[in-house]
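Session log. Operator J.P. requested a structure for one protein chain; no other inputs attached. Running the standard single-chain path with token output.
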Amino acid sequence: MYTIPKEMKLYVIILALTAMGLGFTNDIISNYFKDAYQASAFQRGIIELPRELPGILCILIISIFSFLSDIRIAILSQVFSIIGIVFLGLITPSYTVMLVFIFINSIGMHLFFVLQDSIGLALIKKEETGKRMGQFRGIFTAFQMVAAILVFIGFRTGFFSFETPLKVPFLAAGVLFLIVLILLVQLQRIVHLPGSIHQQNKMVLRKEYRYYYILTIMFGVQKQIMMVYGPWVLIDLLSKKADTIAMLAIIGGLIGIFFIPALGRWMDRFGIKTMLYVDAISFIAVYLVYGILAAGYNEGWLSRVGWPVIPAYMIFVLDRMSTQMGLVRTVYLRTIAVKTSDITPTLSVGISLDHIVTIICAALGGVIWGVWGPQYIFFLAALLSLVNLYVAVKVELPANSEQRG
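Structure written below.
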């Protein structure tokens, strides 16, 4: 009978609690900006500068702390996350001060995003990469759904609010991140990961990883459009509150519990190349439909109440599934990695490249929304997603790859 190693159990609990913490923060942060600061579409885009700048700085921060293991850097990341979100939970500061603490919290969040995958990859066998990473993402999604249920109940009952001095969801997230920090300390005590690179966590740029870099850059475009302006269609054009966003997250979570582990199995079965095609086509379709809907709501030929709103809900949920296709990129990187020690620094390079375009797209998106209309943000994203299709055609996997394709 297979016994789950203690370090694997700890890692799964860490993932689960992190997912819940993000469910109390990241998933409803747009509502916070709208309710607490009455942000416009342009301001919403500008706010992404301090939120996404840490993504660019990830490569520098990880290089500075290269003498530490991946787990120790992950511990440090939680310290930043806790400081940033607890401060915002305790008071409603001025707009400028709020941006400072958003930046601090975001440093921790982005560092952990890189290390989360590298630690997970180091704990599993290479032949089980797709399956196990799919299971990890499935667990993550399940607990984001748990958080969404609590958020929905909290806002519906009035226990949660972004218009009160204390922001209970943010304080709850701070407690969860503190528990994650303690569990990471325990994980550090019982395991030494091969991926904890000590002195090797430097910048890695190889021509073999060029398509991975392109994919991460494109994901920066896609992620920013759908994480910022996808919810903004619901919040600004359709006047939906945090409880509605939470309900959609619950639905997405329910689907994701089954979809994401299946995605891992599909990678093992059909191969990385096939799944890259699926990834590209899914993004193109989602953006085209969302653009048409945004045009309808903005120009008045689709009602902002009743059944015409349902397609926007459906696309919002489908996008949650599309963004989970990021798992394909991570497994692709492991498949083509020249050395195991390349994985963490290459992930950090990818995060940095992703966030350079993220910041540009955030500011540009706010201008496009205000000057030409929200639909053109999504049409532009659909056009750019053709690059993903090009990469799917061009990628060649190593002859000895475990993955088919």
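Operator note: Residues 194-201 have pLDDT under 50 and may be disordered.
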